[in-house]
Design brief:
single chain; 454 residues; alpha/beta; Glutaredoxin; Rossmann fold; 7-stranded mixed sheet; 10 helices; elongated
Length: 454
């Protein structure tokens, strides 16, 4: 075809139009990429995506979620937090994440009660939840608790020298009470002599080491409360003889003689052998997330007797090297086989569950009771030791039926590893190092000879 001046101009115009259209399309695509995102998870079992229960929960959230991460300048921790939150931001765009370095803002960290590097504070709908475990199940359950409109009221029994939830003495529980409020859990004291009934909106009754005996009328009110299927947390101490019959009659739990001791606590810088340590925990909602040991000063050993009403299981046990010391705690102490002392491990915490009948119908959920042989671990003086605070909060949430609100299925990758025996390793090595090079050389020689004959 003959190229004329007219055809040359037509081709130039076509090229200009094509270039303009191409640039326009690229511009539109670039703008669309800033407005919309498309993600696809091709990993086995979609391990990098949220599970369907988490996505369904996010769809129900009507207000923004604000997350503050108190993390030091540690790239590993911050990246792990960012990757977790991005999964939620993909399905809920109004989820915000802010990092604060607790080293540079210790005042803010102290006010928020931050205890762990990488701890998250989640705000939703004027409610607050703190979180130390960085995994989907923990985060989703924290959101689920924040969406619960039902108010939780923890009632502390008073009038018998119990640990007070309002006073600031070392043996009282005001710091633990403050932490409950941070979790959105209200609490109040109750004196059954002044008000001879437990409020109906009580979600949990706490009896924290009464120093004097409960009156028969008070015992009757507590029995009625337990019979109705409500949860109870009872904290007892060594030598608490006034109310030991109540524990045995209601729950089949009795205290061992003496006080739990561990003469090897000096290895941890503790000179007092009456500090019982718990370093291993059972797979239980109360303890399965605990990462550190818990400390129990002056704990009582507990024993479960036959009780057909409840299913009883230990949740806190001391080390094997511990025992219950009956004699004086002075000088060099050791276990005495010829006495009534009990060799460790010693159970110092039990959980009790049972099905109850409410209004003539069998309840769908189990009644939950927890009995702990120590009240000091939640006191103002010892709450910050080890995992004591987390243990106390987990106990309250479990008793309030707030544990495992959403069960996130585990996402595991299939086994893609290749196990090769030593013989096949030798065969593969010889094949790649000797056989394949010889084949290539022979092939090259054959091709060269064939071309030479032409």
């Amino acid at each position: 075809m003959k190229v004329t001046r007219k055809t040359h101009q037509a081709v130039r115009i076509q090229n200009i139009i094509f270039t303009l259209l191409f640039c326009s399309v690229m511009g539109v695509l670039a703008w669309l990429s800033t407005q919309y995102t498309i993600q696809s998870d091709w990993t086995v079992n979609n391990r990098n995506s949220l599970s369907s229960p988490s996505i369904e929960l996010l769809k129900k959230l009507s207000t923004p979620v604000e997350i503050t991460a108190y993390a030091t300048e540690n790239d590993v921790i911050r990246q792990r937090i960012s990757e977790l939150i991005k999964k939620y931001q993909h399905h809920k765009a109004d989820t915000s994440l802010t990092f604060i370095n607790p080293d540079t803002r210790p005042d803010v960290a102290r006010e928020e009660g931050i205890t762990t590097d990488g701890e998250l504070i989640i705000h939703y709908n004027n409610r607050r939840e703190s979180l130390t475990a960085l995994d989907e199940q923990s985060f989703t359950n924290a959101l689920q608790r924040l969406t619960t409109s039902e108010q939780r009221w923890v009632v502390f029994l008073t009038g018998h020298g119990e640990r007070s939830a309002n006073n600031d003495a070392n043996f009282d529980l005001s710091l633990f009470s403050d932490e409950l409020k941070r979790k959105g859990i209200n609490n109040q004291p109750i004196n059954l002599i002044e008000s001879p009934t437990i409020p109906k909106n009580t979600s949990l009754l706490v009896i924290a080491d009464p120093k004097s005996a409960l009156l028969p009328g008070e015992i009757s009110i507590i029995k009625q409360y337990v019979t109705s299927g409500k949860p109870l947390l009872w904290l007892t101490e060594p030598g608490s003889t006034h109310n030991k019959n109540i524990l045995n009659d209601l729950f089949g739990i009795s205290a061992l003689q003496g006080i739990v001791v561990d003469a090897t606590t000096q290895m941890f810088g503790i000179n007092d052998p009456t500090y019982a340590l718990v370093t291993e925990y059972p797979n239980h909602p109360v303890t399965q997330q605990l990462q550190a040991m818990s400390l129990f000063p002056g704990a009582a050993g507990l024993k479960s007797n036959d009780n057909a009403s409840f299913t009883t299981s230990p949740i806190l046990s001391t080390l094997e090297r511990s025992w219950t010391e009956i004699g004086d705690i002075s000088g060099d102490i050791q276990f005495d086989n010829d006495s009534d002392e009990t060799q460790g491990p010693i159970n110092i915490g039990y959980e009790l569950t049972r099905k109850v009948t409410v209004d003539g119908q069998l309840s769908e959920t189990n009644q939950r009771i927890a009995i702990i042989g120590d009240a000091d671990f939640l006191s103002n003086a010892f709450l910050g030791n080890g995992a004591n605070l987390d243990l106390g909060l987990n106990l309250v949430q479990w008793l309030n039926q707030d544990d495992n609100l959403i069960d996130i299925p585990a996402k595991t990758a299939v086994d893609t590893s290749l196990n090769v025996s030593q013989l096949w390793t030798l065969i593969f090595g010889l094949g790649f190092l000797i056989v394949l090079p010889l084949v290539f050389i022979a092939t090259g020689i054959i091709i060269w000879l064939k071309r030479k004959k032409r």
